[in-house]
């Protein structure tokens, strides 16, 4: 089974900053020390019949002031086909923002950027400077598309809890006026731990809102961020909801490695838990291929 993992993080703690991994810095996770080390492509080990044929590295705080340094280091050290999502600060001046995007765009691995919205989503998505920079990003995508004569605009990795109605409504406004950006929802929008709550229903309702946009897709990973001891039934329910709403052409399965190690013993263990899940067993071969390989190949412009 071929896998392109569209959401993982490689760390180089000898060269990079990674301030968030330091014990005295947030987030204050009790088990953060478990992942405070260097992770390279060699740690992405899978055993047959599973085969990792490519991946997408999501920025991990290597150097937020000069985000291209992280991509350069990866391009020098990785052998498998991969693409990279760089850190970008949406609050900087438009001129500075534009210069950063143009510098990043010169790198082969660069396909998009992320500013983690998280609990600041509403204030960021209604900020005038942030909205101006989204327009800059959209204009850049439009320019790239015209030059290449294909729709390969840049990606904005969109990370926020979809239980917050006001934040999602603000996001919808941003998406509606920036049609050339590909928005990819991270971590299935953080489904709540309790499926019997109004919050879980709200998460579903907001998934439905976002699915209406043709330039929005979703990645499913990060389960350990909600509950380190998440159970198979909860995972199955969440995945089934996402598939029903987004369909097999706009959904991807991912790992969030190495953070998945908060809940699983290894990279192999994580993917094995996905493939043996009740949800996965109900899929057709075509759906399995789309969710594990084909959609990531398409949306991240990978060459396998």
Would you kindly provide a written description of the structure presented here, covering whatever features stand out?
The protein has an 8-stranded parallel beta sheet. Helix 2 packs parallel to helix 4 (128-148). It has one domain (2-299): TIM Barrel. The chain is of the alpha/beta class and 304 residues long. It is built from 10 helices and 8 strands. The radius of gyration is 18 Å and the shape is globular. Strand 2 (51-58), helix 1 and strand 3 form a beta-alpha-beta unit. 39% of the residues are buried. The protein has helices at residues 68-77, 94-104, 121-125, 128-148, 165-177, 198-211, 232-246, 267-275, 278-281, 285-299; strands at 2-8, 51-58, 82-87, 110-114, 155-158, 182-185, 216-220, 251-253.
State the gist of this model:
With 304 residues, this protein is of the alpha/beta class. It has a single domain, classed as TIM Barrel, CATH 3.20.20. The protein has ten helices and eight strands.
Share of helix among residues?
A: 25-40%
Quick one: CATH superfamily?
Metal-dependent hydrolases
Q: Main beta sheet, described?
A: 8 strands, parallel
Shape: globular
**C-alpha Rg, in Å?**
18 Å
User: Which architecture name does CATH use?
Assistant: Alpha-Beta Barrel
Read across the widest sheet, the strand sequence of neighbours is: 1-2-3-4-5-6-7-8
Number of domains: 1
Low-confidence stretches: none
Top-tier CATH class: Alpha Beta
Average pLDDT = 95
Annotation field: number of helices: 10
Layout of helices and strands:
Elements: E1 2-8, E2 51-58, H1 68-77, E3 82-87, H2 94-104, E4 110-114, H3 121-125, H4 128-148, E5 155-158, H5 165-177, E6 182-185, H6 198-211, E7 216-220, H7 232-246, E8 251-253, H8 267-275, H9 278-281, H10 285-299
Parallel strand pairs: 1-2, 2-3, 3-4, 4-5, 5-6, 6-7, 7-8
């Amino acid at each position: 089974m071929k896998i392109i993992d569209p959401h993982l993080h490689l760390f180089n703690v000898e060269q990079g900053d990674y301030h968030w991994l330091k014990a005295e810095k947030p987030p204050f996770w009790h088990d953060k020390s478990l992942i405070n080390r260097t992770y390279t492509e060699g740690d992405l080990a899978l055993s047959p019949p599973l085969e990792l044929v490519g991946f997408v590295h999501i920025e991990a705080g290597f150097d937020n002031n000069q985000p291209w340094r992280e991509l350069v280091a990866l391009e020098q050290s990785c052998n498998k086909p991969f693409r990279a999502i760089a850190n970008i600060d949406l609050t900087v001046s438009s001129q500075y923002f534009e210069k950063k995007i143009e510098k990043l765009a010169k790198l082969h691995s660069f396909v998009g950027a992320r500013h983690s919205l998280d609990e600041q989503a509403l204030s960021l998505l209604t900020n005038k400077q942030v909205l101006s920079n989204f327009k800059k990003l959209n204009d850049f995508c439009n320019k790239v598309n015209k030059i290449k004569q294909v729709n390969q605009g840049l990606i904005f990795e969109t990370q926020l809890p979809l239980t917050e109605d006001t934040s999602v409504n603000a996001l919808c406004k941003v998406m509606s006026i920036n049609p050339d950006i590909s928005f990819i929802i991270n971590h299935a929008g953080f489904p709540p731990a309790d499926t019997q709550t109004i919050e879980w229903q709200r998460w579903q309702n907001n998934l439905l809102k976002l699915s209406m946009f043709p330039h929005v897709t979703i990645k499913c990973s990060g389960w350990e961020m909600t509950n380190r001891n998440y159970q198979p039934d909860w995972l199955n329910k969440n995945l089934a909801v996402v598939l029903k709403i987004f369909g097999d052409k706009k959904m991807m399965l991912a790992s969030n490695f190495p953070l998945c190690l908060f809940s699983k013993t290894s990279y192999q263990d994580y993917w094995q838990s996905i493939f043996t899940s009740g949800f996965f067993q109900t899929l057709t071969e075509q759906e399995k291929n789309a969710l594990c390989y084909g959609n990531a190949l398409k949306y991240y412009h990978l060459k396998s």
